[in-house]
């Protein structure tokens, strides 16, 4: 087993000595630098598994180190040491790509947990991008950017606020951030904040002691404890009542919780991810959401655009869903069906696409999913009125027959014209065209082949 190597950067000799000693006891080898220039030199010369840097250095700051590593040593986790109370700097470092931060005076247990977690990250394969791509589907530029940001955010510990309309994939993104990061082997706990009754909230989040209130028959772990070492995903965080927001902020700041009925705080190591389909910024403006909590949760925002703004994702998503939902009997979509999906606005986003595909697979009678099978709102399945309209608009009447060619030839022409018109009317949707013509899909396919119509 190779011994992990850590680079320590601090201008105070005492702090360097404390870090060297603590890490040495964890069987970790260290090299130390007192300023930015010598840190850069060590980074050139040696390979490290983690870098711990102070924020204030004689010839620059910790952010310069974070930026340098982000540019030249991608994949090397860097954690910053900040003065107590200087949250702004810590947040700037997290935004710049730092893995995590610790405050001075150093809490040795916290430091050890951070180092362990970062070294875990170094051991992981350099990029798990393929696995991320496999789950968050889509080929649009927007979703590619989301995937790239997820991979970057997975490597850090910063709180991430995921915004986007309902059904865009916020929970999926949160899971990926967890699965691709150093906490992957630990729990991922998702909680819908809007679904917990207000009077039970504190106990749900922080746990309770037996007998602390009527009905508390046993000690109970809260969600923070359950997510210990892992990730707590606060879905619909905008639905948290204000008194609970205060308690949550405290728990996040102190990295500790106090179960209801207990006198003691318990330290918790949990990464917080949150999401809502509401506009959290608006809630802050109206006073429904506390600004301090907003800043704490929203260190980095991941925006998932609505599906209608990334229609390029629809083919991959639809094909994937058809395969997933059809249990080994995937049906292809006709070009017309795909075109109709691309034009549709999807107010329910990917979740709605899932529902549409499920229904289409159930309804589809032919070997491919066509526009009519999708039952898109606003696309009424053509019925009798369609047929009447078609015959009324038909360019052929019995009186058109002049006797210049055989009746048979004439009928073939009529048939061809009627089929071509029905296909045009339905945007090349063969199922709908067959309905409009009053024949079965099979019969239409046969006629198309016979007449050589593509
Ligand atoms: N890009 C994608 N690739 C594959 N599946 C996706 C994608 N985006 C969303 N999904 C699927 O769509 C469904 C809805 O996604 P998810 O639950 O993550 O949405 P959400 O934004 O959290 O919704 P809500 O706001 O209603 O909680 C899930 O089944 C999810 O797996």
Summary keywords:
454 residues; alpha/beta; Rossmann fold; Helicase, Ruva Protein, domain 3; 4 domains; 5-stranded parallel beta sheet; 47% helix; elongated; binds adenosine-5'-triphosphate
Overall description:
Residues 5-119 form the Response regulatory domain. The relative contact order is 0.07. The protein folds into four domains: 5-123, Response regulator (Rossmann fold); 129-303, P-loop containing nucleotide triphosphate hydrolases (Rossmann fold, 3-Layer(aba) Sandwich), CATH 3.40.50; 307-379, Helicase, Ruva Protein, domain 3, CATH 1.10.8; 380-454, Arc Repressor Mutant, subunit A, CATH 1.10.10. Helix 7 packs across helix 8, helix 19 crosses helix 20 and helix 20 (430-437) packs across helix 21. The protein has a five-stranded parallel sheet, sandwiched between helices. A five-stranded parallel sheet has the order 9-10-13-8-14. Strands 4-5 form a two-stranded antiparallel sheet. It is α/β, with parallel strands linked by helices. The longest helix has 19 residues, at 407-425. The protein starts with a strand and ends with a helix. The chain is built from 21 helices and 14 strands. Adenosine-5'-triphosphate (ATP) binds at residues 136-138, 164, 166-172, 235, 277, 317, 350-351, 354.
Determine and state the CATH class of the largest domain. Answer: Alpha Beta
Question: Distance between the terminal alpha carbons, to the nearest Å?
Answer: 64 Å
Helicity level: 40-55%
Instruction: Sum up the overall morphology in one term.
Output: elongated
Number of helix segments?
21
Bound molecules: adenosine-5'-triphosphate
Q: Under CATH, the topology of the largest domain is which? A: Rossmann fold
CATH superfamily of the largest domain: P-loop containing nucleotide triphosphate hydrolases
**Taking Cα atoms only, what radius of gyration do you get, to the nearest Å?**
30 Å
- For the biggest β-sheet, the strand order reads 2-1-3-6-7
Main sheet properties? 5 strands, parallel
User: Mean pLDDT, as a whole number?
Assistant: 85
| % residues in beta strands | 5-15%
- Number of domain units: 4
Contiguous low-pLDDT stretches (5 residues minimum) are: 381-397
Keywords: ATP-binding, DNA-binding, Nucleotide-binding, Phosphoprotein, Transcription, Transcription regulation
InterPro entries: AAA+_ATPase (IPR003593), AAA_lid_NorR (IPR058031), CheY-like_superfamily (IPR011006), Homeodomain-like_sf (IPR009057), HTH_Fis (IPR002197), P-loop_NTPase (IPR027417), Sig_transdc_resp-reg_receiver (IPR001789), Sigma_54_int (IPR002078)
Protein name: Sigma-54-dependent Fis family transcriptional regulator
GO molecular function: ATP binding; sequence-specific DNA binding
